[in-house]
Specification:
Shape: globular
Number of strands: 18
Largest sheet: 7 strands, mixed
Low-confidence stretches: 1-31
CATH superfamily of the largest domain: Medium-chain alcohol dehydrogenases, catalytic domain
Number of domains: 2
Structural class: alpha/beta
Mean pLDDT: 91
CATH architecture of the largest domain: Alpha-Beta Complex
Distance between the termini: 40 Å
Bound molecules: zinc ion
Radius of gyration: 23 Å
Helix content: 25-40%
Length: 382
């Protein structure tokens, strides 16, 4: 039963030698080394909380409808840091898995049956692809798809893009856009979805809690929409300085002053038109509710730990007509829009990349993100 035998490294080497007739027989290590060079890749594999290992695994092959991409840049994300530090819902990430979800690269192999993309094309894809068939998709709520596929594996030399994702959520990157900028399409797409749902308008005063990557992307976006005044709240002075440089009109260090009181002062006693929570804690979700005026909107953007709850004032909702909404993830349409906004430099995401590091140093990268106050996003170069 030859076909049932589990392939061993030795067998692979033999097969490789047979294929590459010119490999010299002298040293067996030479053959193994060449073999490694041909089919293995370096990846950062996540096994559990704070357990991220650099490993060599075989490069996957693109099957029918799939595309294999050589990753040129992968950017770190607040969600990655959260998963690294405290874990996440299994529906979205099953361990162990190659980690990372924001990436851009060059097409290395195109699976059977595809007319697009071409080998060598600069592309980005993922990190999700809705099914287009379920009840949610049928209603156009693609971000809530019940059969969503999620793609992890950005922190690797190669990533294989599933067939459905090639169809609904892969785009070509214009030549003038850097790979690391294109990798930021994903978080920007999430922010665009949130800001659209919250209906931020020209002339609005917007208060944003959190000056991390997501808070800053909200800042850049509402600025472009034409917010009259943008107030950013955080506990870290370095981040607030960064927000100021990125266009915030006012910044508030909530560790030093009462943020709710200060927002009132800055808005003639009323509060903001829109408050956006970009942290993911019940306490800041509740704080966001206190930042808006009557008729205002609260966008609870940051995902909180499972099982948590917040208190809402019925008075504020009824007599104050305050709208409270949460948004989750994004849709293929917003991915496309986000890449276009990055490419046209309408939203300049480049300053958010504060450091570049090698894939081998990924643990150090997360260490830096956990402790440093001035790093926003790190571009990982495999
Ligand atoms: Zn992300
Ligand atoms: Zn669906």
């Amino acid at each position: 039963m030859e076909s049932l035998k589990k392939p061993t490294l030795r067998m692979h080497v033999v097969t490789f030698k047979q294929k590459m007739g010119s490999v010299r027989e002298k040293s067996p290590y030479r053959a193994v080394y060449s073999f490694k060079r041909v089919i293995e890749m370096k990846v950062a594999m996540l096994y559990g909380v704070k357990d991220l290992r650099i490993e060599d695994i075989p490069v996957p092959k693109a099957g029918a409808g799939e595309v294999l991409v050589k990753v040129k840049s992968a950017t770190t994300c607040g969600t990655d840091l959260k998963i690294f530090q405290r874990g996440y819902v299994e529906k979205v990430i099953k361990l162990p898995t190659i980690f990372g979800h924001e990436w851009a690269g060059e097409v290395a192999q195109v699976g059977e049956g595809l007319e697009w993309p071409e080998k060598g094309m600069r592309v980005r894809a993922g990190n999700s692809a809705p099914c287009l068939h379920c009840t949610m998709c049928q209603k156009g709520k693609y971000n809530l798809c019940e059969n969503m596929i999620w793609l992890w594996g950005a922190y690797a030399e190669y990533i294989k893009v599933p067939a459905r994702m090639v169809l609904v959520n892969m785009q070509e990157i214009p030549q003038h856009v850097y790979y690391e900028e294109a990798a930021i399409t994903e978080p920007l797409a999430c922010v665009l979805h949130g800001v659209e749902e919250a209906r931020v308008k020209l002339g609005d005063t917007v208060a944003i809690i959190g000056a991390g990557p997501i808070g800053l992307l909200h800042l850049l976006t509402v600025r472009k929409i034409g917010a009259e005044k943008v107030i950013v709240i955080d506990l870290v002075e370095e981040r607030l300085n960064f927000a100021e440089k990125s266009g915030a009109d006012e910044t508030i260090n909530a560790g030093k002053v009462d943020a709710v009181e200060r927002v009132r002062q800055l808005t003639g006693g009323y509060g903001a038109d829109v408050a956006i929570e970009a942290i993911g804690l019940p306490s800041t979700w509740e704080q966001a509710l206190k930042l808006v005026q009557k008729g205002g909107t609260v966008l609870e953007f940051g995902g909180c730990p499972p099982g948590t709850e917040i208190k809402l004032s019925t008075e504020q909702l009824h007599y104050g007509e305050v709208t409270v909404l949460g948004t989750f993830h994004t849709t293929p349409l917003h991915f496309r829009k986000a890449l276009n906004l990055i490419a046209s430099r309408t939203i300049d995401v480049k300053p958010l990349i504060t450091r570049k590091m090698r894939l081998e140093d990924i643990n150090e990268a997360f260490e830096i993100l956990s402790t440093s106050k001035s790093e926003i996003k790190i571009a990982i170069k495999p």
